[in-house]
Predict the 3D structure of the following.
Amino acid sequence: MKSKTYDVAVIGAGVFGAWTALHLARRGKSVILLEAYGPGHSRSSSGDESRIIRMGYAKDEIYTRWAQRSLIQWKELFAGTRNEALFQQTGVLWLAGADETRLNETRATLRRCSVPFEDLDLAALREKYPQIGLDGIRSGILELESGVLMARRAVAATVEEAVRLGVAFQYALAETPRGKGKLRSVKTKSGEEISAEQFVFACGAWLAKMFPEIIAKRLFVTRQEVFYFGLPAGDSRFAPPALPTFLFQSDESYGMPDIESRGLKIALDAHGVAVDPDTQSRVVSERSAQEMREYVRRRFPALKDAPISETRVCQYENTSSGDFLIDRHPEVENVWFAGGGSGHGFKHGPALGEYVTSQLLGEAPAEPRFSLATKATVQRRAVF
Ligand SMILES: Cc1cc2nc3c(=O)[nH]c(=O)nc-3n(C[C@H](O)[C@H](O)[C@H](O)COP(=O)(O)OP(=O)(O)OC[C@H]3O[C@@H](n4cnc5c(N)ncnc54)[C@H](O)[C@@H]3O)c2cc1C
């Protein structure tokens, strides 16, 4: 019996693959979504409990606009279902340090894009957030409508909706396709052939391993450690609305208030060491735990004795600049890459899926910033 040929096979059900499959299904395409371990599994980049959705991107208006489009779509996906709480509107507070260049660029872009925000000087910050250690901070921006997506469950909800619309979801490890020209099928580890007209590899950090010759030197996979701090009993100063989600630009740190009673979440956005997503240890080191304790003591003095209640170790899959990689395979015309989330991709899942769909259907011009050609082999981060 001849097996089915899908319009599109999407490989990887992280946030990028899930939204790509969903948008393709909404356009009436027959889609199969292959995933090795499970949507938003704990070793994927989409796999933590929560991810920030913020509009501020300094002068990179393209990402501000994508985040705006995406927030609308996330809310639509969750609306009226048991998933409504998968977006939490905590507000997002930007704090810079001595250098306010990027903060001022963010102010200008948010105004241009009509994103509602409050401008806070130091006196206003002190009054509103007495629980934050503000040394070195001169001013801040509070994005009022932004917040937090409950990440792994949001991916599961996206896949659920895609399946409801007819997407075939299958647990399978796809093997690297060989040859040039046009790909007819991908082989899975169990020996099955999956045929499709087009293929989208949305494999996160694994893209580098799937396509070593093309991508390995252009994707910088780094270890990122995340900490949750247990809060003093009966203390609501670290829960929304008292504390919003926060980003300290000059410290390269970010975090969020007490959501679902998990405590204060905090992490460094600075890139960690290079790792392999299959083999890296998922246990934080005592040294980084100690460094984070000291940092928390400085920025949240009332938590100086707070215990670390939970940790996560994940990976960023950075491109040289931080711009996404969404492009066609240079030698196989019907194979596409969708990755390079670079530590900020989660929120953009809906807009990214929409963009990939427009590329596959030949409906929109390609954005040069996402091209493979712009992905260098030396890192020079430009998107934050
Ligand atoms: C610690 C941390 C904090 C972050 N914070 C934020 C934030 O606050 N806001 C934000 O917007 N973004 C944030 N990001 C970035 C964001 O999470 C990622 O950019 C995004 O999740 C990438 O999604 P993805 O689908 O490309 O990759 P992944 O989520 O890794 O998904 C790829 C999937 O492909 C599957 N796969 C790979 N190879 C194969 C194969 N051969 N066959 C079948 N399946 C395969 C994998 O199993 C995996 O499930 C953060 C990332 C990290 C690590």
